[in-house]
Fold each of these.
Amino acid sequence: AQKVTQAQTEISVVEKEDVTLDCVYETRDTTYYLFWYKQPPSGELVFLIRRNSFDEQNEISGRYSWNFQKSTSSFNFTITASQVVDSAVYFCALISGGSQGNLIFGKGTKLSVKP
Amino acid sequence: ETGVTQTPRHLVMGMTNKKSLKCEQHLGHNAMYWYKQSAKKPLELMFVYNFKEQTENNSVPSRFSPECPNSSHLFLHLHTLQPEDSALYLCASSQEAGGLTGELFFGEGSRLTVL
């Protein structure tokens, strides 16, 4: 079965703090892709990153970084020096052959960044 | 202009009403999706259309009826809904359905309230 777990329902931080959003996934497929999406208050989900199962290299994009560890089936997302505009719900998602090409989403983590 | 446009953004309807949600994508994609987002639940995939053909119906009740007249337009016809159907309905598109690398582009959603 395919499953994505985001154990943190809500996180609140003060601006400029670093924050890490956790994501743990389950799949029996050896080929899969992991995603992070951001959902601001306006509603639309915005694609942030895609990672394939054969590339465990960590990635950094500005203040965002992702830590993919197959040994622990985790794909964590860190925001450095958070800003108020980072306030949103963040979803981790998985796609694999077992999901028939459909994205399996976690329940999301609501991040509130206070000034 | 956003790539995926949904109308209406907000809809309130009674249980006996018939209404429709509309989605239009301007990205030249061939696959379109309906997702349901309820409070405290993961995004639920409802329907998938690939090249205008329905490829996925995720055990959705018949009171939800999708229609895809062409690759750019997707409708969700609503009839005799229940209060528990109140949710944010998100439309998405991708280059093609079923692939493992497909990134989804989402609309801002239609917030539905059933009285």
Amino acid sequence: DIQMTQSPSSLSASVGDRVTITCRASQGISSWLAWYQQKPEKAPKSLIYGASTLQSGVPSRFSGSGSGTDFTLTITSLQPEDFATYYCQQYSGYPITFGQGTRLEIK
Amino acid sequence: EVQLVESGGDLVQPGGSLRLSCAASGFTFTNYGMNWVRQAPGRGLDWVSYISSSSSAIHYADSVKGRFTISRDNAKKSLYLQMNSLRADDTAVYYCARVETLAGMKHWGQGTLVTVSS
């Protein structure tokens, strides 16, 4: 199985900050990577697929990059509604696997 | 509008069984594979099972293989998860999610809570 490792596990930032979350796959997954945002008691929301393609309706302050084994999610100019938990997920093949999550908190 | 609505979650004793359902609307159900993903309280996301649009391909996480069975009824636009031999570590919110070709999972249901406890 492909293991997905996110870092950091948690992150404190302020409104207006730029933050970067990294995700590393235990083996190459090309660009078969998605990012999700989840708020408490809510279903995950898809942000990015194909490592860098923004889902429709997702603000342009979100961006993704990477291929192979190393990926990043960047949020520029954090907004209050961005404080949530973020997960990466590989869909190179089954079993699909998620990172352990990065909790983004308000400083 | 794409909608996925899970139901069937409940409190069940260890060793018991439960059947979850996911009702789909707002899209052509027969065109999409579907996943079940779960989330234990305070934990991360954990993929459970996948079924292709025609049910010709099915996959399970090792943790549920032999105990859970995924199925679908395209005429009823519904997805199911039959869960047998339930254990305490199966306690979680279970989500159904539509599989987008080459694009992960864009649409998710609201989830249904399964609690396994005596």
